[in-house]
């Protein structure tokens, strides 16, 4: 089973590089494009990363992970929404599972109304598509930072899971989710939110 590891450095990488730690590529999209339909890859971020418009392939498994933690076990690499670019998001295409761990995920809304929904992720309505955030262990090494009153997980979501991660917000705001027919919030365990975040009573706590 082909499962390569690509190292990405947005500032000093080059998309013509091999994608090794010593010769990283520049973009997440390049790593995804090198992964065939039905394949899998791990993308290791060596730097802060501001999203462009990113689209996965179909039936892939894409793991995005920070390269290191600080001395207290906290993530130091940030994957963020570009507030100047409304298209700044990762679209997860049909049948693909996106896994994010050991990262700080900065969710913004660029001033859009709730009807726009998107912050950092958008997901296909096709079955078998999902987003998983956090470690499936007892280590809280993934963090979501809300910089807008809405954490707008796309209404087209099929499967969304969080485990062992933290949600923080600089100002009082709520975590808002909407689920359409045929969509589900997978069991989320040991999710810790600060006092400015309200978790809905749909299996989150």
Overview of this protein structure:
With 205 residues, this protein is mainly beta. The protein contains 1 helix and 16 strands. The strands form 3 sheets. A 7-stranded parallel sheet has the order 1-2-5-8-11-13-15. A 6-stranded parallel sheet has the order 3-6-9-12-14-16, with no helix packed on it. The longest helix is centred in the N-terminal third of the chain and has 6 residues, at 28-33. The protein is globular, with a radius of gyration of 16 Å. Mean pLDDT is 80; it is low at 113-118, 151-157 and 178-184.
Q: What's the β-strand tally?
A: 16
Please state roughly what percent of the residues sit in beta strands, choosing from under 5%, 5-15%, 15-25%, 25-35%, 35-45% or over 45%: 25-35%
Overall residue-averaged pLDDT value: 80
> Which overall shape is indicated by the principal axes computed on the Cα atoms?
globular
Radius of gyration: 16 Å
The percent range for helix content is under 10%
Structural class: mainly beta
Please identify the oligomeric state.
single chain
Pick out the low-confidence regions. Answer: 113-118, 151-157, 178-184
Main sheet properties: 7 strands, parallel
Q: How do the helices and strands follow one another from N- to C-terminus? A: EHEEEEEEEEEEEEEEE
Put simply, the count of helices is: 1
Q: Order of strands in the sheet with the most strands?
A: 1-2-5-8-11-13-15
Distance between the termini: 36 Å
List the helices and strands and how they pair.
Layout lengths: L4 E4 L19 H6 L6 E6 L3 E2 L2 E3 L5 E6 L11 E3 L8 E4 L4 E5 L2 E4 L13 E3 L6 E5 L7 E5 L12 E5 L1 E4 L15 E2 L6 E2 L12
Parallel strand pairs: 1-2, 2-5, 3-6, 4-7, 5-8, 6-9, 7-10, 8-11, 9-12, 11-13, 12-14, 13-15, 14-16
